[in-house]
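Data availability (excerpt). All sequences and predicted token strings are deposited with the supplementary files. A representative entry, ATP-grasp domain-containing protein, is shown inline so that the format can be inspected without opening the archive.
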Amino acid sequence: MHTPRNFVMISPHFPANFQPFAERLREQGFNTLGIADTPYEQLSEGLRNSLTEYYRVNNMEDYEQVYRAVGYFAHKYGRIDRIESHNEYWLELDAKLRTDFNVFGYKTEDMKSIKTKSAMKEIFRKAGLKVAQGRVFKDDEDARKLAKQLNFPVIIKPNSGVGASDTYKIKSAEELDAFFGYKNPQVEYIMEEFIDGDIVTFDGLTDHNGNIVFYSGLEYSEVVIDIVSEDRDIYFYVPREIPQDLIKLGKKCVEAFGVRERFFHFEFFRVKGTGEIMPLEINCRPPGGLTIDMWNYANDFDVFREYANIVRENKFYVEIQHPWNVVYISRKANKNYVNSIDEVCRKYAGNIISVQSVPGVFAKIMGEQGILARTADINEMHEIAHFAQATHS
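Structure token line:
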């Protein structure tokens, strides 16, 4: 079997906490070939030292420029073995480049099933899983008809989209009419019945043959859509104990979507009252924010190194024990907290990993600052979060 050696990294500097991918791949003997539109001197020193070569394009949205960059690397280094950004935004660009250069991984024809919510639903259904009722609507009249069938409240979101952006909970016919006034005419929307449940996730990494080599979960203190609309605080965490029904269903989903040598991030509803789990969507990338770092703290390992091992020799060396719960606790600039960050760090000195500043684009959900902490005991983890987020009423 050909040992991969030329790894093209799309936008290797973003997000900043993904930069260790380049470092670990380089350590494993790969040619790490970066492409982005950021000037070379603006890359971090660590990343510059970890890239074999960097090709700056003027505009990442101009496919011809990026195609030429990959062509240059292929001419100079030989066959391109991998093209990857680990980023939702560049999924289609990655796939088009893989298609055109015949590189292992998702190609353009695979994009519909992992980018559009309507196609995901079909795959979940084919795997025998129950999903929220709903479909793409054609126009305003079709939407009114569908809302009558589903009953208010309904959820409307882009058929192809990321996270909770442009997602609306519509509670009445009047709110639906208002939505028609501000919806983006360029976007295809899907409407679904409202499921009263908590979002839980099944995340991890598969090897070259699609076997899960690492899995984890995420749980949230609040529903993300409410955090944005009601400006609430959130904490989310990687729990030590992952429920067996979630593991079983997660494994079924990984198989149904044929996830190979990739990170995955499946979102599910755990329905209030019944406790049943319903698949919501798949993301073929690592979870966002600091989750990938939280995995490392939760398991005392280096997921970046293990990923490089999987790509190079299809081996995952660490035995995962899940020794810790790791939590991210958001702190917003506009809240009047009882306890300062210093007080939180003093009181729970043995548990605090770090305090993070959050860039503006993410602060609406993640807070301007975030506290990372870990505990062996789940109750102590909740206690730290409540202490850190208590506000003067």
